[in-house]
């Protein structure tokens, strides 16, 4: 199993390879992990472009994600240089576009009436999702990297210092605040919260998943995904970077240098767990669990007993996105902007395409059952289809 934690300077190399921000601790003359070269494959799956459009300057060199949101017939997307756009999902036509004339660090989040973004100056802004008109803005105590999330009544924002704040979606009035203790050294990554009708679930850099009452922010339960261990701050990193995956009445969570676990939504009780290390949400399909590990391996586990079915290690240290499951295939993006198509059955690489030479950091989304929503670092937003060669 290639999911054991790396220590010392190798750990720092893993962080740098993942494109995260870490503090110094090793000499710059010592070796770092090097990304594997782009695999030379003879694939039988092509990737077709249904449509492509451009959203501002994309990530504009920032270490952000800015994941687009699919909302049925509309896709909402933002860029680091302040462009907010509503795009028709059928053909990519622009419904509306607005330049906020400010740098953005997080977003978008969407509910029935609003679209939410967070600026570099730590302002939460609510816009009308019908035309982009600004409705209100408020100041946050510090910056946020995770997209705001709303149930229509409240909007929750998680800041990088471990606070979860809830605001009235109609006017921006603060409703409550919860503060979690976070380590001195963390990844430059935050998990997007889950917001339900009566509960807000946050995942923090201390390795804990917390369920908070939506009405007053009081803790309902907590679950420890990663337990800090080791002598150095690097060894003790246990960040949770991916939004928990909702599966019926359970949550599937994974952490860096921690574990992959299934827990009950209502109680936080563990159903099962196994060691794992990843900063990205897992994916499930056809009774299997798929994971992009922190070292770049892609692996499949049997859902019934979590037995390892296969590991694809040809993409090691290529800073992969989380996996997206489309039918019989698995798709991941990497830091050079390649999309890699794997067989879900055995992990064989069966397709490849360089989508954006600036890289892909935002998670790939499956929409309409069999299409891929991809947002490249340069600002290219596209809907793609897989076409197996019969």
Which fold name is given in CATH as the topology? Methylamine Dehydrogenase, Chain H
Kindly state the number of beta strands: 32
Helix percent reads under 10%
Instruction: Work out the count of structural domains.
Output: 1
- Rg (CA only): 20 Å
Give the tags:
four-stranded antiparallel sheet, Methylamine Dehydrogenase, Chain H, 1 helix, 390 residues, disordered N terminus, mainly beta
SSE layout and pairing:
Layout: H1 8-17, E1 45-54, E2 69-71, E3 74-78, E4 83-88, E5 94-99, E6 104-110, E7 114-119, E8 123-128, E9 134-139, E10 149-150, E11 154-158, E12 163-168, E13 174-179, E14 194-195, E15 199-203, E16 208-213, E17 219-224, E18 245-247, E19 250-254, E20 258-264, E21 270-276, E22 283-285, E23 288-292, E24 298-302, E25 308-312, E26 324-326, E27 329-333, E28 338-343, E29 349-354, E30 365-367, E31 371-375, E32 380-388
Antiparallel strand pairs: 1-32, 2-3, 3-4, 4-5, 6-7, 7-8, 8-9, 10-11, 11-12, 12-13, 14-15, 15-16, 16-17, 18-19, 19-20, 20-21, 22-23, 23-24, 24-25, 26-27, 27-28, 28-29, 30-31, 31-32
Q: Would you kindly provide a written description of the structure presented here, covering whatever features stand out?
A:
With 390 residues, the chain is mainly beta. It has one helix spanning 8-17; strands at 45-54, 69-71, 74-78, 83-88, 94-99, 104-110, 114-119, 123-128, 134-139, 149-150, 154-158, 163-168, 174-179, 194-195, 199-203, 208-213, 219-224, 245-247, 250-254, 258-264, 270-276, 283-285, 288-292, 298-302, 308-312, 324-326, 329-333, 338-343, 349-354, 365-367, 371-375, 380-388. It has one domain: YVTN repeat-like/Quinoprotein amine dehydrogenase (Methylamine Dehydrogenase, Chain H). A hairpin with a 5-residue loop joins strand 24 and strand 25. The longest helix has 10 residues, at 8-17.
